[in-house]
Design a protein that fits this description.
Number of helices: 2
Helix content: under 10%
Largest sheet: 9 strands, antiparallel
Strand content: 35-45%
Distance between the termini: 25 Å
Number of strands: 9
Shape: globular
Structural class: mainly beta
Radius of gyration: 16 Å
Strand order of the largest sheet: 4-3-2-1-9-8-7-6-5
């Protein structure tokens, strides 16, 4: 992973042979597809709390199943505070590259900064991605020791955070 020395990333001229760079004009995602695969084995479960701009909170979970070299099935749905499913979760197949691409933001509107952050699961070294867009700025915190989805995401007054990893 690379972070611009000044804290502001400009990745336009990076070679696309780098597995962190998915294409011209895109900032490098924090993890490669292979790193996400290694970090999300079968049974890997993330419990996620979402609080909307009005303060209403919900809990959901993502669990990785049937992983192979190409991708995995992700079971996703509402859970109780203990992480038990509230009904049958939805399941969808995704490739590791598709999951990596979720964090491929436009380079010219993305700032990447390394920082230590107090999260619901404890303090973690993170890469903070600030992505400026027409609807304002969205901020994503990716914990270096947990390849995959951001452990915190803030946008439009809403906050989504991983509160448990199993």
């Amino acid at each position: 992973m690379r972070v611009a020395p000044s804290g502001t990333a400009r990745w336009h001229d990076r070679p696309t042979s780098d597995p962190h760079v998915l294409g011209p004009g895109l900032a490098p995602p924090p993890f490669t597809a292979d790193e996400i695969r290694a970090g999300c084995p079968d049974g890997h479960l993330l419990v996620i709390r979402a609080v909307d701009a009005d303060g209403a909170a919900t809990l959901r979970a993502n669990r990785f199943e049937d992983g192979d070299a190409e991708g995995a099935t992700i079971a996703a749905g509402a859970v109780d505070p203990g992480g038990a499913w509230l009904g049958e979760p939805a399941r969808a197949r995704a490739t590791w590259l598709e999951l990596q691409a979720h964090a491929a933001f436009p380079a010219d509107s993305t700032t990447i900064v390394a920082e230590r952050v107090a999260l619901a699961i404890g303090e973690r070294d993170c890469l903070r991605y600030e992505v400026r867009g027409g609807q304002g700025t969205s901020t994503f915190w990716f914990a270096l020791e947990h390849p995959g989805m951001p452990l915190r995401h803030a946008s439009g007054g809403a906050l989504v955070e991983v509160v448990a990893i199993r």
